[in-house]
Prior knowledge:
This protein is of the alpha/beta class. It has a single domain, classed as Rossmann fold (3-Layer(aba) Sandwich). 34% of the residues lie in helices and 24% in strands. Strands 5-6-7-3-8-9 form a six-stranded mixed β-sheet, sandwiched between helices. Strands 2-1-4 form a three-stranded antiparallel β-sheet, covered by helices on one side. Strand 8 and strand 9 form a beta hairpin. Helix 3 (100-106) runs parallel beside helix 5 (148-162). The termini are far apart. The model is unreliable at 1-5 and 244-249 (pLDDT under 50). The site of adenosine-5'-triphosphate has 11 residues, from strand 2 and helix 1.
Amino acid sequence: MNTDAAVEPAIDASGLTVRYGDVLALDDVTLRVPAGGVCGLIGMNGSGKSTLFKTLVGLVRPQTGEVRILGGGIREARRRGDLAYVPQSEDVDWAFPLSVREVVMMGRYGRLGFTRRARRGDRAAVYEALDRVELTELADRQIGRLSGGQRKRAFVARGLAQGARVLLLDEPFAGVDKPSEATIVRLLTERAESGCTVLVSTHDLQALPGLATESVLLRRRVLLHAATTEVLRPENLARAFGLGEESVA
Ligand SMILES: Nc1ncnc2c1ncn2[C@@H]1O[C@H](COP(=O)(O)OP(=O)(O)OP(=O)(O)O)[C@@H](O)[C@H]1O
């Protein structure tokens, strides 16, 4: 075992098995993602991507296995504000009476004192994050009154405002137009260059090489974790999707 803290993986999941009743969603998944890079997560519908994210943030408890984030427990990482999660849109209650600005401010909660009162630095971080995802003009709008792409960008802004060192994004490009996708890719790349670790699932295989240097093919188990160019080879995609090359591109 490597005991050098400097090379300890930022995301270290070992032997994760998750069952929902009779459904085996994750089967002995082991995944180690080094710090400072973007890792893609791909797999067909129902392959366990969302379950893996939820397990990595502690929303789903695995029947077996363990997760370590930045060398410690999930709860500690969350408490420090080091772990940000952008859920799939279906997992969010869009009727909740919160404005875009308030959602983004939630990213600062781990850093606010017990009074939960935002300080100047918190407001500045929220302002900057909104600006970066180009949502400043919609900051006071209720989150349910946004388009699908704007909703995604609001949650990406929450992750940015949090200043987390590990960012988990579950299909941040779903329903997002190409310019907004390019904006999100640029922001994630910048975060990775400054030392953050990003795990991002996507069905947009064409965008993957421009986004992630390494990728994981999931089909309940990790089929392959390698350089993105290797992962995207037709024979590997065929294993993950059970289809020919044309059908999945
Ligand atoms: N709350 C739940 N209760 C029961 N089964 C579930 C639940 N959540 C997910 N599943 C099942 O677990 C498996 C993995 O689902 P998961 O949502 O993790 O896949 P996914 O790769 O994220 O899919 P998609 O690409 O469609 O978002 C599927 O068979 C799904 O039907």
